[in-house]
Amino acid sequence: MLWLNFLHFYQPANVSTDILKKALAKSYWRLLRLIEENPNLRVTLNVSGCLLNRLAEEKEVAFLERLTFLVKKGRVELTGSAAYHGLLPLLPSTEAVRQIKENEKILRKYFGRSFKPKGFFLPEMAYSPAVAKLVKELGYTWIILDEISSAAGQPQLGEVYRDINSGLKVVFRDRQLSNTYPPDALLNIITKIKTLNILPEEKERAVLITATDAELYGLRHEDPTGEIEKVVKEKELKTETISNFIKNHRHQKISLNLRPSSWESSAQEIKNKQPFLVWQNKNNPIQADLWRLADLALSLGDKFSKDKNFYWYRWHLVRGLASCTFWWASARDFVQIYGPYAWSPDEIERGLGDLIRAVRSLEDKKTKKVKLLAEKYYIRIKKNIWAEHWKKHWHKNV
Fold first, then answer.
1. Which residue range is the domain that position 343 belongs to?
2. Which of 98, 148, 345, 356 is 20 to 30 A removed from 190 (C-alpha atoms)?
């Protein structure tokens, strides 16, 4: 049985040091040691560019050096992504390209001047045909998506497909398996294989693909009995990087028409043509105003690129555009899949603060009218955040 395990390492660029250190202690170091201690283990990771920079800023040199060693040895494969985790289908194409190229620059900084991944991780697995075409044009060859992305119904998991819209190769994660704690499920499957006398060739054909946040391993689920450490030692289980799996895949690559979706999308949301409802719900006044402010801030980039504070405009803008800013305003309950209740005034305000500072940073006098409108959105959002919090949500966060 082959396990393709994709792990997404991400913390926002504006995350507090305490939260970053907690993710390192509980999840990131545990996973790194797991790979080091099991020489045959192969995994594919997305380590967001903004996280790499934060680790460097916090002087986590040992972590970066040991990760680099595993990458160079071929035991870890890295993918490309957007440096600041913007939800690419909801951003202008120029911004999407800019963040993808910034991520490439960061990867070269830490992993070598010629470093170029083959695979690409769309933040939140948020797929659209337009974004997929951009990814292909920028030199990537494959993406990983949630199985709900297939317009033709449930795809055959463990197969390699071709996206009709972009030409990218595609593998699909098993949503049900990914939304559990995968090591527990894998150990149960291995036990059944051992007891049911399954033929060797049937075992070899079995391919399981999971994709989760790296924080699942330790931070969100403590795993006190060490199920992850147990499962990687099972002789019935083999692992491989996704690029090598695609390279060695012998079956015919079937073309599929994919639909806009994310790893959080429901079938009903896709049917209603609202695939990114978690991040952009027009009936959510806080999210609606956040996007108005974000679009306003984005519109200033081309007009005032010569502004003496343009660097700081961009510095704040990309942090405010992170998907987390909008996700934490959704008030969705992800507890059943080892996530939190997605409501946090502090996290919303963190992104909101960067969006308004992006606008405020510009010196040009011609920005005055836009600044006044931005401040109007800012004040209204802050008011609505706390009115909503005390009215509906505070008891779920205490």
1. 278-388
2. 148
**Is 284 within the bounds of a domain?**
yes
Q: Which residues contact 231 (CB under 8 A, 6 or more apart)?
A: 183, 186, 187, 190, 237
Predicted TM-score of the model (pTM): 0.95
When the pLDDT of each residue in the chain is averaged and rounded to a whole number, the result is 94
Residue 348 has pLDDT above 80, yes or no: yes
Structure confidence by residue, pLDDT tens digits, 81-101? 999 999 999 999 999 999 999
User: Which pLDDT score, from 0 to 100, does residue 201 have?
Assistant: 55
Domain count, the chain: 2
**Of the residues 210, 229, 259, which one is the last residue of a structural domain?**
259
Q: Give whole-number Cα distances, 154 to 120, 146, 176, 269, in Å.
A: 22, 10, 12, 16
Q: Which of 27, 74, 37, 70 is nearest to 240 (CA)?
A: 74
My answer on whether 362 and 222 are in the same domain is: no
178 and 111 share a domain?
yes
CA–CA dist 281, 397 (Å, integer) = 22
Q: Which two tokens stand for residue 85?
A: 């985790």
Regarding whether 160 and 73 lie in a shared domain, the answer is yes
The answer on 289 and 171 residing in a single domain is no
In a domain, 268, yes or no: no
Could you list the beta-strand ranges (E) of the chain. Answer: 2-9, 43-47, 76-78, 119-120, 142-146, 161-163, 169-173, 207-213, 238-239, 254-256, 332-333, 341-342
